[in-house]
Structures are given as C-alpha cells and as structure tokens.
Amino acid sequence: MLPYDELLSDLQQKSLYRELRTIEEVQGPIVRIRDRSIVNFSSNDYLGLSQHPSVKAAAKAAIDEFGAGSGASRLISGTSSAHTKFEEEIAAFKSAERALLFGTGYAAAVGTISSLVGPGDVVILDKLAHACLIDGAKLSGAFLRVFPHNNTAKLKHHLAWARQTYPHGKVLIVTESVFSMDGDFGKLVELAALKAEYQALLLVDEAHATGVIGPHGEGLAAALGLTQEVDIQMGTLSKALGASGGFICGSKTLIRLLVNRARSFIYSTALPPSSAAAASAALKIIPSKQGDILRSRLQSNVLDLVRRLTPAGRQASDPISPIFPVVIGDEQRTLQLSEILYQSGLLAPAIRYPTVARGAARLRIALNSSHSVEQIQTLAQTIIAFR
Ligand SMILES: *Cc1c(COP(=O)(O)O)cnc(C)c1O
Questions:
Q1: pLDDT per residue over 197-209, tens digit each?
Q2: Between the CA atoms of 231, 91, 216 and 189, what dihedral angle is there, to the nearest 10 degrees?
C-alpha cells in the first residue's frame, strides 16, 4: 500500500479529484466516448488541422521516410531534415532569425527559462502564467516575482526593485499572448516598452495565439510588429498546428545557447519526425487562403458564443480569442455543470484548482472552426439554463 489514500480522498472531498477519459475515435469536433458521440468543446486544435488530410498525409510520409520514432536526442542522431525544415519555416513565419524544436511546449519552457537565468538573476511572471513557465522559473534558481495579471504598474515596480537589488543580474519578464484559462491578451506593447526601459529580457508564450491570432495566424508579437522586442517567442505544435511538440524562436545567439544549455533539449529524445512534418504541412495551410477561411469561421463561432453568453448591455471585448471561460466559482457546482453538459452530449471539463485559483473554477470553452451553429446554440442554452 502506498501512503497516499488520505491525500486522494481529500481531493475527492474537495471536488478537486481528476480522472482520465478515453476517446475512442475523432471525427472533426465529434469524439466517441464509451460508444457515445460527444461534441468536443475542450480541444485546442482550433482550426481542426490535426484532422486535415494534407497534415495527416505529411505525418504518414515522414513515418515511411524516417520511422515512427527519432531514435536519439537531437544532438546525437535525432535531428532529421523534417526537424530542420520546420525550424526554418517557423522562424520565417515568426520573423525571427532562428528556431529550435523541443519535445513539448512544456519542455521548451522549462529548458529555456532555466538556460536564460539562474541564481543572482530575477524572473518576473504574470500571475496567470502557465504552469510550465512557473516550473521553468523555479527550476532556474533565479529570484521569482509575480505581478497581478496584466498589472504593468506593479511589473514596473518589480523591475525597479530587481535593477536595484541585482544590479549585475539578468531580469527576465515572462507572459503569455493569449492566456490559456481566461482567453484574454497580454499587454505586449507596454511590456516591450518596460523591458527596454529596464534592460530586461522578454519571453512571450504564444501557445494559444500561433495559427489563430494576427492577419496570417503568426501570433500576437509578430502581428504587433514586436518580434525585435520579444527576445524569446515560445509556442507549441500541439494546439492550432495540430501536431505535437514545442518551439522557441529568437536570435541566433539564443538558439545556440539553448542547444548547449537547455537540459530538456539535450537529455531528451527528439520529437518524432512525423510530428515536425505534420506541423510543416499545417504551417503551409495557416497563412494561406484556406487558413484565412478557417480563422474567419473560428472568429464567427467565437462571436456567436460570446453574443449568446454575454449578459445583455455588456459589450464583448475586442479582439477575441477562441478560449471562452464560463466562471462558476464553486468547484462542486462546476463539476455539476460539466456533468449536465456531458449528459447533453457536450464535452467541457471543469477546470479547477490548482490550474486556476481556488473558488475560480470554470468551464474553459475552446471553440474551433468546425463547430456548427446548432452545437454552439445547444452549449449556450444548457449553460444559461444552469445559471
Ligand atoms: C499547452 C500550453 C503549453 C504546453 O505546451 P505542450 O506542447 O502541450 O507541452 C505551454 N504554455 C501554454 C500557455 C499552454 O497552454
């Protein structure tokens, strides 16, 4: 017997216990679970590209060419032409000098932050930064400071403190462009100005923006023309790119540093060539006319849901992301709503502590370009009836 029964039943009592749910088949936004068809409102495959014929064909072709796995870490013999091709393409797409692939976005964050800063340096994070960014900051051994979400006045205060306390240290600001659990935007213009004023470094995680935000889906930093100011553009292949893996874009020096220092890059097997090839195919679609059509469908789905769920008289904020939080607060009630939706054939898991703050439990609705008006209508009606 392992001594964890009490801990687990405590989680159950607090409505914080989590369980896996197995999906048996995927058809567009419909998944099959225990022989039932359920509309998935929780996937980050915003443009449906994981299902796109040319993305799937590229993965299959790469398996035939290189095999199912990459066989070694990148520095040993795991770097294939599928990896380097994607790195060149994503660097160009993000207007950066170079790019580097990691096994996952999580690994990219942890390896990168711990390469950039260490003891004697300071990391300043937005309060709502993703767990992988926090873990990277903790692992680095740098001094950690957190500013309230998007509160640039408090960030400025921390920057002044950091410059005074660690005059010779590096200072790294970490934020997201589209926040993963709230769907709102980081204040990149203000952050870029502050980073210049205090000679800090700026890392922006574009996990939920890449492919979706900006005229060509290039993400918020590139769309705002801030690629010179954002020293480290981070992203993942696992969301709108429909594949799996993580990446960092930036200067030649940054990428050389990571190849030599990022432990999650050095000591981990390269992601499968098929993932890189699939992401390359997705990256061809994203800035194309077809990509524009997918993004505009996504946009109208988001607007539709926002209109249905925003209380009358309140303006939906602009611009909008595909993530729409329905904050319920109480953990047990959130689970209850999620269960009611599931019984109505809609999948929207309850997001609870520690993913979000205690008492800020929510459904995180993730829309995608292939949801139908009827599906969104059923979702909205079920939520409104519960409220
Ligand atoms: C999903 C996510 C990651 C991690 O990316 P993976 O490729 O899934 O490991 C990093 N940052 C944010 C904000 C995310 O939402």
A1: 999 999 999 999 9
A2: 10
